[in-house]
Every structure is written in structure tokens, then in C-alpha cells.
Amino acid sequence: MGLLLSCCRPAAQGCQLVSAGQVREPDYSGLRSNVSQLGHILGETMAAAEGDAFLELIERIRVLSKGARDGSPADREALLSQLRQLDDEQLVPVARAFAQFLNLANIAEQQHMVSRTMAPLLSASRNLNKSLLELREEGVATQQIADTIAALKIELVLTAHPTEITRRTLIHKHGEIGECLSQLELAGLTEREQSRLHARLRELIAQIWHGDDFRRERPTPVDEAKWGFAVVEESLWRAVPEFMRRLDEALETHCGTGLPLDAAPVSFVSWMGGDRDGNPNVTAEVTREVMLLSRWQAVDLYQGDIERLLEELSMTRCNDALRELAAEAHEPYRAILRGLRDLLRRTQQHIEALLRGETPAPVDILVSEEQLWEPLLACYQSLVDCGMQLIARGSLLDVLRRVRCFGVHLVRHDIRQDSARHTQALSEITRSLGLGDYAEWDEDTRRAFLLRELGNRRPLTPRRWQPSADVQEVLDTCAVAAEQPTRALGAYVISMARQASDVLAVHLLLQEAGVEEAIPVAPLFETLDDLSRAREVVSTLLRDSWYSGQVAGRMMVMIGYSDSAKDAGVLAASWAQYRAQEELLEVCGQYGVELTLFHGRGGTIGRGGAPAQQALLSQPPGSLKNGLRVTEQGEMIRTKLGWSSLAVKTLALYTVAICRANLLTPPAPRDDWRQMMEALSADSCAAYRAVVREEPEFVPYFRQATPEQELAKLPLGSRPARRKAGGGIESLRAIPWIFAWSQNRLMLPAWLGAGAALANVVAQGKAALLQQMAQEWPFFATRLSMLEMVYAKADEGLSAYYDDVLVPAELQPIGAGLRKQLAMDIATVLTIQGAEVLLSEQTWTAETIRLRNIYTDPLNFLQAELLKRNRQRQSPELERAIMVTIAGIAAGMRNTG
Ligand code: PGA
């Protein structure tokens, strides 16, 4: 596929990876040649499988697509007619050719980020060293840096959100391809080694071409959890100690003191099998099983580590403390390690019996991380005392660090449930007690009731009471939480939290189930109104003596990025999120409570996504003081954490951003900036809702112009696309809402409202103030740069094409109006930025979008055609082809929902 050679030309100028003043031209030649190499192999594979004529057809389509993108109407016409002429059996292979190419280009780009060529610019060590040096140059005392790093708390919450379109077996193959590319970068490979690696690439690409792109069935929540554990096993288990080595070294270099031995700067939490919000497949039984599997996986990984140490630590000299532990053993370290190995084996057998549903005899098993930590620490100290520091700080240190990061549970598990389900449970309880209907009570009555019951230790639920199945499920889940050691649990998150009673209700249900030690109960505020009232809700809670006694100086609040954006548009939502964080910090400060803000962000801009550094530095001052807790979802898990080399880089990025935010407090907004944001927020929300809520034909238009209905059929995750059946966009989850608009390339939710509000300000002659905000306030600068990014991915021509093919004439004015608005918005943002073209400072990003368009355009044209045919006459073949186009476009956009 020589055709692909053109795909990765170097950007005309430097890229955004280097800041001004340090311009160093990144070298894209390796990336270019890798993309072309993978493209060639894909071409050969397709020719071998489908024949030369097929490859010629693909090449024809590509050339026409390029011509059309370069502005030739004749090529566009010819492209469309070529695509329309495809026979039914050609649809899937043609779509796959383009989709697979985009996947391969993504792998090459991902590998480029961790390549040797880019190491001088992008490696984790470089990032850490450079940032620590900058902090010192900016006058931060070394002790302060060391303290900040020692107190670092990064909790990454892996969710099962259905946004990962690539199936697991493909992800694995993609990882292998990346690995081959990395190997090929090494100097000194023999010809034999090189040809072996090329053969392996050909083998992997052939496996991909001849395999299925999709799961046939939806994964179960247990499958999802296993996928999460595989990420730990394949990537994070290695990445965490590696990241800590690099951090330790950088700290030693710049601050003269390393990382404390028991530092645990990062840990992982999982929602897979625990997040039941709107997902009836996640039951109490599933959560119990997943938590056992998680322990099993941890034990299994530690066994591998201990086996390796057993091979290595055959030294005989030891200190007195170890001698005492190891008695007469000639090789004392091994003696200790053998004990650990036995403990792990027993534990694994015990868990396996529990998983089989048996009740194994109580034996001495691993339940606390100290059982691992103490003997391993004793080995470590003995080695140091006996002059074997080098050995102590080798593999053994890595294992110690894993113990602190992964504990005995591997990851902690959060539980999430919708507030309405707790209300329903309390409603049934109060009715059965003859107290009336909790659901009908006002907030004050609910709160008074809950507080009374919380202070009362007698059982709340009547004996022999039979709740409805839904309520039973809520109670069973609380019972599962009660069975778990506190360290196994992260938080109980309440989605759609609105009132203080929503939080107290969960405390009561947990108390009733017998939860002894307090686990954080975190309200998730996720609509504009709820974010605006977050302060009031939290201060009501903290005013109460039962509550403040219960939380003992710490609380967690979750900020919902996607649903608030779906509710009010991105600009208003982002300001509401910012304000809520500020207000919550203030109110918690007043009560002397340490607040952990938990950010529920998605990968796409419409769901609060932004590059890590930008996202964190644009948060309000003080918001990272107690660490970072943030969701990592779907394909973001793969692209940020899926390979250990990437994960090390991601952890370093987070570390650097948190240190900067905490040590060089970001500028607080000036009063006139705030007023401006208030005005922009009100205007943009009104403009957004005028379309999404008030335009009566909007929902029918959305249904026709995007593949929303077809998306629900994609077996991506265990969760349904809607919170409840039927309904307009209110019941549709944020993910498919955004996903649908990124397929037809209108990207509506990521920009609607913002440009109109900004234009009003410009029209009032206040552009200068906006420009000042953009220059001096990271929050505002990030908003504008995210808008630019979305505008660059949006494509009016494609959106219009979807309308032509799919939307009935009477609804077409809606699309035309939206596109007109988009064009005006782009012009407004360019005026504010003082730029002539979008992404003028991010030329590489602009370039990759432009080059990918050549491959995504045929997929978009095909998709529109397929949707039309399938809506007239459904067929499995058409549906399969639609799915391939969906996956291909998502690969081209590099994200989905
Ligand atoms: P949720 O998440 O629908 O699970 O709340 C939405 C998102 O992360 O975009």
C-alpha cells in the first residue's frame, strides 16, 4: 500500500510538545516510515487475501478522497459514485481497509510518543528533571518540593465506560505491533533479527485482517473487570516501580533526597463491576465476585515476583533482625521468601475455593499488606546493613513499591449508584414501617428522619419484610460493602446527587447493612443546577454534628463533567465546575475539612477531556492540595496507561502538573474575568438550550442525522445506552450523545453555545478583555484551545452530506442553521486568538487531522450511505458494515464518546 506513504509528513513547524524559547524540531521521519511500513504490509495482506483488484479499488478510493479533500469537485463526485457502486459483499472489506489503516497509524503514533527518537523531548525522566529544575529556578525551596512529592496522591479510577471500541484481542495485537516497532528502533540488530521482526509484523497484521473486529456479544461486567485487571498485569504492575525509580532519581538530583521507601504516590481504583448506575447487569453478586478476582490477580502477580526474588536473593550474610526471623537457614532471604510463597499459594487456593462457591476452612491467608511489607522490608534492611545496597535497591525495591501501591487488593473498588435508587429504598422502608412515603417528603423532613435514624442503633428495616427486587439489590450491595475490609473499598459514589439527604440516605443504608468503618460517601454533582448548589449541600452536611463526626475531617465530592456539559453546554458547564470546586474548597476550609475532589472526566472535549497538563493547571487554585482523583475511561485507559512505557509517561505528566499547581499556585481569576465568565456562561447555556431543549424538531433531527440509534447496538460495554427506555436526550447517557455527534463530524455538544456567547462579547467591543483572559488565565486559555481542537475535527461538508442522505427535507434547515453557527463560531474564536487558521500553534495536530481525513472521508461517506440503506431495509451485513465504519471513524478521531 504505497499509497500510505503520504500519510505522515512532518509538520511544517515545531510542535506543541516544546514550549516557546526551547524550540527543538521534533523528528517525525521515524513515524513517517513506520506508518508507511505498516501501510505496505496491510496492502500486501489485503492483496493476498482479497486479490490485486481489491487493492486497486482501495487505492482508487484513496486517490479520489485525497483529490476531493484538495478541493476537486470531480474527484468528490467520482468518489461518491465509486462508493455507491460497491456490491454488498464489498462494503465490509472496503470499510475495514480504511479502518485498519487508521488503527495502524494510531499505533505508530502511540509508539512514536515512547520512541527513542522522541525520548530527548518527551521521556518521563526528562519531564520530571526539567520540571523540578524549573521549580527550583522559580524559587521553590528544595525541601518544599520534596515534601510535595512525598505527599503526592494520585488516584486513577479505571471505569468500565463503554467508549473503548477496540476489542481486547485487537488491543493485544496492537500492543505487539508497537513492541515490534520499538525493537526495530534498536541499534545493532542483526539482519536475521530484523527480518524476524518484519515477519512478526506481517503475521500480526494478517491475524488482524483475518479476524473479527467486534465482539459478537456484549461483555459482562466480570469481563470488563478482567479487562481492567489485564491492564494492571500487562502494564501498570511494571510501570509503577519504573515511574517511582525515575521520580526518585530526579528528586535525588534536584533536591538531594530520594523518595521515602514507603511512598505511595499513585494508586488505582476500579469501577468495573462496581459502578451500577444505570447498569442492571452489575449486581451485588457481580461486585462480590469481581472483588475476589481482584485479590486473586494480586496474589498471582506477587507470586511471580516472589519466585523471581527467590531465584535472585541467595545471599547468606544478614543482619540480626533477619537472622532472628530466618532462624538457622543458610540462605536467610530465601527462607523468608519461601514463607511468603507458601502464604500466597494458600491464599490463592482459598480465593479459588470462594470463587467456586465453597466455604473453605479458615486458614492463615494474606489479608493485609503488612504481611508482605514487613518480611520484605526486613530483607531490604538486612541487605543495606550488610553492604548490599545495590541488591536491596534492585528488584526487591520494586516489589516493596508494588506492595504500597497495589496492596493485597490490586485496586480498590468504588461503588456507584443513582440517588433515585436510594430514595426508592427508603420510600419502601418508611412505607413498610407505616411512617408514610419518604419519596414524598420535603428535604427537611427527609433529613430529620435520616439523622434521627443514623443516631439510632436499632435495626431500621422491619423483620420478615420483603422489599421489591430493585430495593433488595440496593440493600444487597450495601451488604457486600459491609463484608469487605475497608482497604478494599474506595468510595460509594452517588450519581445525580442533589440534596444533603441523598448523602445521608447512603450513610443510613450502609449503617443498616453493618458497615463498621466509614468509607467515603461521595456525592456526584452533575447538572448545572446541582453544581451550583453543591456548596449549599455540603455546608448543610458539615453543619450537622452527626455528619461532621462521621467524616472526621475528610470528605470527597465528585464533579461530573459530561452530564453537566450535556445539560448546559461546555462553556457554562466548565465554569460551573470551576465555581463548584472553588466554593467547595472554601466551605470545607471553613469547617477544617480536607476535601478530595474527584473529577469525573471523559476523554473527549465534550466530556471534560483535555491534555492532562492543561486540564490540571486550569483548575482553581488549591484544588489539587489533597491530591488528584480522576476517572480514566475506555480508550483513554489504553492510550494513556495501556503500555507500561506510556503509563510511566502519564504518571510523570500528572506528577509534574500537580507539583506545579501546588507549588506555583495558578493565578486566581480577577473580578472582571469572573463577571465575564458569568455572562458568557448564562449566554452560552441559553444558546445551547435554545437548540437542544427548545427546538421542537431537534431530537428528530438528531435521530436522523447521526448514527445514534445504531450505536446502541454496538456491543461495546455491559451498560445500556440509556438510563431508562424511551425518552429524548434526557435519558440518553452522555457517552452515546457525544459519540453520535463525533461520527457525523458536527461535534455539536463540544461547541454549541460557546461561540455565540463569545460573539456577543466581541460585538460589545470587549474582545480585549477576552484576549487578556486567554493570555493570563489558564482556565480560559484551555477553553479556547479545546474549542479550536473541536472546530478542527468538525467538518461542515460531511455533516451536510449526512443531512442530504439521511435527513428529511423538512428537518434539514436545522442542520443548515447549526453549520452556519459553527462557521460563525470559528470566526469568532479566531478573532479572539488573533489567528488566521485553527490550531496555528499546534501544527502537528492540525496536520494529523488533515491527513487522517483522507482515510476517514470514505468511511463517513460510506456510513451515511449504509445508514440510509439499513434504515430502509435492515440487514445483518449492513449493520456489520456500519459498525466497521463507526470503529474506523472513531479510530480516525482517536476517540469515541
Ligand atoms: P456516566 O459518565 O454517564 O457514567 O456518568 C459519562 C461520562 O463519563 O462521559
TrEMBL record:
The active site is at H161, K566. It holds the Pfam family PEPcase. Its EC number is 4.1.1.31. GO terms for biological process: carbon fixation; oxaloacetate metabolic process; tricarboxylic acid cycle. Gene3D superfamilies: Phosphoenolpyruvate/pyruvate domain. InterPro entries: PEP_COase (IPR021135), PEP_COase_bac/pln-type (IPR022805), PEP_COase_Lys_AS (IPR018129), PEPCASE_His_AS (IPR033129), Pyrv/PenolPyrv_kinase-like_dom (IPR015813). One of its GO terms (cellular component) is cytosol. Keywords: Carbon dioxide fixation, Lyase, Magnesium, Pyruvate. Its cofactor is Mg(2+). It catalyses: oxaloacetate + phosphate = phosphoenolpyruvate + hydrogencarbonate. The keyword Magnesium applies. GO terms for molecular function: magnesium ion binding; phosphoenolpyruvate carboxylase activity. The keyword Lyase applies. SUPFAM superfamilies: Phosphoenolpyruvate/pyruvate domain (SSF51621). HAMAP family: PEPcase_type1. Belongs to the PEPCase type 1 family. Homotetramer. Forms oxaloacetate, a four-carbon dicarboxylic acid source for the tricarboxylic acid cycle. This is Phosphoenolpyruvate carboxylase. It comes from Pseudohalioglobus sediminis. The lineage of its organism: Bacteria, Pseudomonadati, Pseudomonadota, Gammaproteobacteria, Cellvibrionales. The gene is ppc.
